[in-house]
Design a protein that fits this description.
Elements (H helix, E strand, L loop, with lengths): L34 E2 L4 H7 L9 E5 L6 H12 L3 E3 L19 E4 L7 H14 L3 E5 L11 H8 L3 E3 L5 H14 L6 H10 L4 H17 L6 H7 L11 H6 L8 E2 L1
Parallel strand pairs: 2-5, 2-6, 3-4, 4-5
Antiparallel strand pairs: 1-7
């Protein structure tokens, strides 16, 4: 070893990369956090009047991350309705002993049933008690892969309302909310850049926020455009970094109406 490279003390080990310790993602199911948009206007109109649901039943359906669960659980929280999970629905469900006046029932992920007989029993139970029943799933109930003929006929007769992919304003709001739930501070300019390059799908926007959160934790907690460029190329639908897209974008999306 040459004298010019010898320092007289052992080389210091490299500093370890910051260990990513994700914070819990906080989700508030509050009607005040449900935003009106053309994509969900019909669903919100139906949710405002459960007493008008045909046969006391309504099903929400639409792509992932478009707000079905949020809307279902917000209504349930507002009205004191119990919320059941389709994948956990088994046996012979019973009504809670003390339901408030005007209460109903809600079933999230109702298209992923653990036992079809349990859902059939719940439908009959709610009908006998005169309770409104709200379901949520990806596809309309008429298209759920159900084997029980009685359940299939009831689902096909149920009123179903679809939720579409969000408009530009709501998509920007969803991205801000995804970052806020993860307690990740992101400059508005970077959020605008992300929206220019992400597909117009709520599920992909949510996945982008999750990936960027993990990347920021692993690299010191600050999210930059360079880190976003390095993190998102493998995300389905993420567009190339073409500055001409920003030049072509005219104005900013209008924020959605807060209910």
């Amino acid at each position: 070893m040459s004298a010019s490279t010898w320092t007289g003390r052992p080389a210091e080990p490299p500093l370890p990369r910051q260990l990513a310790l994700p914070l819990p993602v906080c989700t508030r199911y509050d009607p005040a956090t449900v935003f009106a948009d053309e994509s969900n206007a019909e669903a919100l109109a139906w949710l405002h009047r459960p007493e008008g649901w045909p046969q006391g039943r309504l099903a929400l359906h639409g792509p992932a991350a478009t707000g079905k669960s949020h809307m279902l659980r917000s209504l349930a929280a507002q009205r004191g309705w119990p919320v059941l999970e389709g994948p956990l629905l088994r046996g012979w469900p019973e009504l809670p002993p003390e339901l408030p006046p005007g209460a109903g029932l809600a079933v999230d992920d109702a298209d992923c049933l653990a036992e079809e007989a349990a859902m059939l029993h719940l439908l009959n139970l709610a009908a006998e008690a005169g309770l409104p029943l709200l379901l949520a799933g990806r596809a309309p109930p008429a298209r759920w892969p159900v084997a029980l003929a009685d359940l299939r006929s009831r689902l096909r007769a149920m009123t179903a309302v679809g939720i579409r992919e969000p408009g530009e304003g709501l998509l920007a709001t969803l991205l801000r909310q995804d970052f806020a739930r993860r307690q990740l501070r992101v400059e508005e300019g970077l959020q605008a850049w992300l929206l220019l390059h992400l597909p117009r799908e709520a599920a992909v926007v949510a996945e982008a926020a999750a990936r960027l959160d993990r990347a920021a934790l692993a690299h010191g907690g600050r999210l930059t455009r360079a880190l976003a460029r390095a993190t998102l190329p493998e995300l389905a639908g993420f567009g190339p970094d073409d500055e001409s897209m920003a030049m072509a974008a005219a104005g900013c999306p209008q924020p959605p109406t807060l209910l």
